Amino acid sequence: MSNVWQYYYEGISRANYVLYYVPSIGMDATLRNRILGEAKFLRAYFYFNLVNIYGEIPLKLLPPLSPAQINVAKSPVADIYTQILKDLSDASKVLSKTYSSTDLGRATKGAAFGLMAKTYLYQQNWASALTAIDSLESSASYSLVQVYENNFLDSTQNNSESIFEIQHLNGQSPSLGSFLDQYFSPATYNGYYFNAPVQNFINEFETTSGGVVDPRLDYTVGRAGNKWVNGENFDPTWSATGYLNRKHVQSKFDAPIIGNSGLDYVYMRYSDVLLMKAEALNELSRGTEAIAPLNLVRKRARESYLYDQGLPGFGAVPANLLPDVVYAGQSDLRLAIQHERRVELGFEFHRYFDLMRYGQQVAEAALGGTGFSYAKNRYFLIPQSELDTNPAITD
After folding, report:
1. DSSP code of residue 261
2. What is the residue range of 221's domain?
3. Is residue 84 a part of any domain in this protein?
4. Which of 101, 138, 141, 239 has the greatest CB tally within 10 Å of its CB?
5. DSSP 155-223
6. Cis ω on the peptide bond leading into residue 174 (within 30° of 0)?
């Protein structure tokens, strides 16, 4: 947790230097504005994660220009969100809608609107979240890829579903690769087999009466009876739970040096936005509209059978697999959307934040048996290293 604090505030510091010094540089105005927009987007991204992990935190908007400006007191959560939204609004005005292949990974208008929508969603400002999503959808032609798995393969990165994707490149010095493959690979491949899926997560995936499971399960999880990413049979003894996360693991044939993977991390996908849209509509008592984006996500999942030749029975969708959700009231639809977020975005690092924003009842029920108390554990403690060096933080 100390590293998270350090790295994100380092990112904020770099963004602040850009925002302070770049306006005075004599250069192409369009490029200058884009650079400033990128800095504001990244600062908003860092603050969004920090405020959801730690709650009240120091809000730093300038580089430390004197010793007296280094230490900053904590600001209320609402103030952090206000600044995030301001940065994203500013960024959305100057960022490009799309980029050429040489600039993939740069923040776009869609990325700014997507994070804006997410921020409003976390504040339960449903109407503003919908407005931001409308702006995202008009900014570029986002669409769901036909096969769910293609969001997590090196060969199909930066696709039409990707809204903000953190780029990685292997074989570089200094390293620009991802370490996630090492975190999640089995020990037999020098991995750490961290964060192994548990049975509760496996059980979340729907199964037909004929025994056909939601295909997203095996795109997400390595389990007995299926192949691992390298093509060999998965061995359940590789994990204490019998399962491993496969979304961030690259085949040894594509990434021979473990811990230096070229597989990107997709922070925000269009399916995430569709589920945010469904949630906002439902909370605004527009449930009959909300089922449309929700069912688009389910439709893509089940229709992987029409496009992925590796699925058994390829060419036809199994009977009664992931049927469309029918509106049966706001409460039931709320649960359906929460379920869909868990299986659609599993192991993409959104679940903890979702549980916390859902509130005490949902979070404590989901984390039952762990000793988790929402009142006590909603936010992580600010690292002791920061408390020792920043006397402006008084409690």
Report:
1. B
2. 180-245
3. no
4. 239
5. GG-S-TTEEEEE--BSS-SS-BSBSHHHHHS-GGGT----S---HHHHHTS-B-TTS-B-THHHHHEE-
6. yes
3-state secondary structure of 240: coil
Same domain, residue pair 145 and 279 = yes
Residues 232 and 101 in one domain: no
Residue 392 · residue 72 · CB < 8 Å: yes
Reported in sequence order, the residue ranges of the chain that DSSP labels E, i.e. its strands, are 57-58, 74-75, 162-166, 221-222, 244-245, 265-269
Query: Is 70 found in the same domain as 149?
Result: no
**Cβ(142)–Cβ(301) below 8 Å:** no
In a domain, 81, yes or no: no
Provide the pLDDT confidence category of residue 323 given band limits of 50, 70 and 90: very high
Q: Model's pTM, two decimal places?
A: 0.96
Write the single-letter amino acid at 243. Y
The enclosing domain of 157 has a CATH number of 1.25.40.390
Residue 10 has pLDDT above 80, yes or no: yes
Please name the residue that has the structure tokens 């605004």.
284
Looking at the fold, whether 191 and 296 belong to one and the same domain comes out as no
Kindly state whether residues 199 and 269 are assigned to the same domain.
no
Examine the domain organization and report whether 184 and 162 are in the same domain: no
* Cβ contact 337:331 at 8 Å: no
Per-residue pLDDT at 67: 83
Please report whether residue 254 resides in a domain. Answer: no
- Is residue 12, in this structure, part of any structural domain at all? yes
Please state, in angstroms and rounded to a whole number, the distance separating the CA atoms of residues 89 and 164.
Answer: 16
271/141 same-domain check = yes
How far apart, in whole angstroms, are the C-alpha atoms of residue 143 and residue 269? 9
**C-alpha torsion angle, residues 276, 280, 283, 284 (rounded to 10):** -160
Distances (CA, A) of 345 to 175, 216, 227, 297, 298: 27, 10, 21, 11, 12
Phi (first) and psi of residue 96, to 5 degrees: -75, 155
Pair (268, 354) in one structural domain: yes
Q: What amino acid is encoded at 126 in this protein?
A: W
pLDDT tens digit sequence for 182-206: 999 999 888 999 999 999 999 999 9
How many structural domains does the chain have?
3
